[in-house]
Structure formats: C-alpha cells, structure tokens
C-alpha cells in the first residue's frame, strides 16, 4: 500500500516520514541514486507503507542546499553581534541567497546584552535599515517573535555559535536542544546540531539545522546577485543602462544612492565583493 507523507528527519540513510499522524522510518529506493536525486527533510513523498521504502519525491516548491531542506516558507537568520561578532557580509550573503530561492528571510539579532551601548546603537542602525527596505527584523528578546511561526515551515540559519538552539529553547522550553560554548580562540561555536529535523512548535514546523560559518554563491550568476539585492530594484530603472551592474558604469543611480546614504554602504560593498567572487 502506497501512502503520502512528509520527511521530517534524516539520520544517515534513514528518512523519518510523517504519515497520517505516525512516523515511519524509510529507506530510499536505489533509483534515487541512479537519477541523482537526494530526498530532503521537508519533501512530500510517496512511500511503500508496508515495506518502508521511499518511492517518489513530489515536485518541490523550493529548496535550500545548505542546510538541505525543501518546501520552506521562511528562514530566520540568527545573527550574533558578539562571539561571534556581527558580520554584515554573512548576513547579506544569506539574504541574497534566500531571496534567490524565493523564500521569505527574517532577521533576528542575538547577544545584544553582551555589547556596549555604542555598539548597540551601531547595530540599531543596521536594524532600522533592513526594516526600511522591507525585512522583518527582531532581536532574541522580542515577545512578538513567537507569533511568526504558525502554519509555516521555518528554517533557522546562521553561523555556528550565533545562538540558534538557544533561541529555539527560549521559544519552547520543552525542546531542551543541546547548545555549545563558543571557542574564544576561533570566534565560533562547536557544531551542536548534527542533523536536520522538523520540530513542531508554536503552531508550525521549525528546522533546527547544523550551523555554518561560510556560504558560497556558486549557483548564482552576477545578474542573480544584483537582482536579489532588493533595494537596488527600486532604483535601477533610473540607471542610464538597462543592464547596469552598478560598478563602473556612468550615471548609475545605485552608486548615487550609496553616496547620499539612501543605500547602506556596507550593503553596496558586500555586493561588489559578491559579484567580484564570480570572476
């Protein structure tokens, strides 16, 4: 008998599929490997219910490769401001990647209690800018953060040590997810999350995923990167050239808006670094 379900957890070659209120541990058929298909947590699948095999993966709405999750509604980018220190480069890289995959990004700053008043003021300017261009921005103490998860599949992403598991534990004290100390010497955390799992909390499903400290833009072209800096799209029609890359071209409206402060300078500098990495 074949049944439809959703993969909610993966451990090695075991896929935990939720089917009609129960969880079935399934193995993938060999055809997936032959076809170059890898089941992801979040996939809707058809299984052989009696023999516990994955038979078919339904078409995905979207997917993330790192972490490997499919059919995601939103990604909460957990952004530490101290230990590890705030990186606008990593934040912007995550934002442009998530935008590229047509998933809603949400920014959550953590560890604001560990920095000085002047540093909090600097971070506040970043928060205000990202809100201005259309992103939802929170810090880890915002009570309203609990309201964004209902009926959504949410991925938590960010550097190792940024506080993802700690934040999840705060949102739902029954989780008791393992957290790790941050190495002062390395400025990053030990990887405490070893696999991807969809956890039912706050009326939705949240993926606790392995942390990472690097991310490449390999699958994106220079034009993809440009088009997913969302505030650029508001002004680019005013550039002299329709295909302007906002670098060396004359009469570039994006460069002018950077000079006037309407576009955050760090955003533009990160954009240049990202497109230069494609050479």
Task: Describe the fold and architecture.
The chain folds into three domains: 2-59, Nucleic acid-binding proteins (OB fold (Dihydrolipoamide Acetyltransferase, E2P), Beta Barrel), CATH 2.40.50.140; 64-208, Rossmann fold (3-Layer(aba) Sandwich), CATH 3.40.50; 222-276, Probable gtpase engc, domain 3 (Ribonucleotide Reductase Protein R1, domain 1, Orthogonal Bundle), CATH 1.10.40.50. Helix content is 26%, strand content 27%. The protein has helices at 30-35, 88-100, 117-132, 164-171, 222-227, 232-235, 253-260, 265-276, and strands at 2-11, 14-19, 22-28, 44-48, 53-57, 63-64, 69-70, 74-80, 104-110, 136-139, 153-157, 182-183, 188-189, 197-201, 204-208. The strands form four sheets. It has a six-stranded mixed β-sheet, with helices on both faces. Strands 1-2-3-5-4 form a five-stranded mixed β-barrel. The chain is globular, with a radius of gyration of 21 Å. The model is unreliable at 180-193 (pLDDT under 50).
The CATH architecture of the largest domain is 3-Layer(aba) Sandwich
The helix content is: 25-40%
Q: What is the CATH topology descriptor of the largest domain?
A: Rossmann fold
Low-confidence stretches: 180-193
Coarse structural class: alpha/beta
Please report the number of helical segments.
8
What would you call the shape?
globular
Strand residue percentage: 25-35%
What is the number of independent domains?
A: 3
Number of strands: 15
With strands numbered from the N-terminus, the spatial order across the biggest sheet is 10-9-8-11-15-14
Along the chain, the helix and strand elements come as EEEHEEEEEHEHEEHEEEEHHHH
Radius of gyration over C-alpha positions, nearest whole angstrom: 21 Å
The major β-sheet equals: 6 strands, mixed
Highest-level CATH class of the largest domain: Alpha Beta
Q: What is the CATH H-level superfamily of the largest domain?
A: P-loop containing nucleotide triphosphate hydrolases
How far is the first residue's CA from the last residue's CA?
52 Å
| Average pLDDT over all residues | 87
């Amino acid at each position: 008998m074949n049944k439809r379900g959703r993969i909610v957890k993966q451990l090695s070659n075991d896929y935990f599929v939720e089917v009609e209120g129960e969880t079935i541990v399934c193995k993938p058929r060999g055809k997936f490997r032959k076809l170059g298909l890898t089941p992801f947590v979040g996939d809707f699948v058809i299984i052989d219910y009696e023999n516990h095999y994955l038979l078919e993966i339904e078409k995905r709405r979207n997917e993330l490769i790192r972490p490997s999750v499919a059919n995601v509604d939103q990604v909460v980018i957990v952004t530490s401001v101290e230990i590890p220190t705030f990186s606008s480069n990593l934040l912007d890289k995550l934002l442009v990647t998530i935008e590229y995959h047509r998933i809603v990004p949400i920014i959550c700053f953590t560890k604001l209690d560990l920095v000085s008043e002047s540093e909090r003021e600097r971070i506040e300017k970043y928060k205000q800018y990202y809100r201005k261009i259309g992103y939802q921005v929170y810090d880890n103490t915002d009570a309203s953060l609990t309201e964004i998860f209902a009926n959504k599949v949410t991925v938590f992403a960010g550097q190792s040590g940024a506080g993802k598991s700690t934040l999840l534990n705060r949102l739902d004290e029954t989780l008791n997810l393992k957290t790790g100390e941050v190495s002062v010497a390395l400025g990053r955390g030990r990887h405490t999350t070893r696999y991807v799992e969809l956890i039912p909390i706050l009326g939705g499903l949240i993926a606790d995923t392995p942390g990472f400290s690097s991310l490449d833009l390999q699958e994106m072209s220079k034009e993809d990167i440009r088009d997913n800096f969302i505030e650029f799209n508001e002004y680019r029609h005013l550039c002299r050239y329709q295909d302007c890359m906002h670098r060396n071209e004359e009469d570039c409206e994006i460069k002018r808006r950077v000079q006037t402060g309407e576009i955050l300078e760090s955003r533009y500098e990160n954009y240049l670094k990202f497109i230069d990495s494609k050479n």
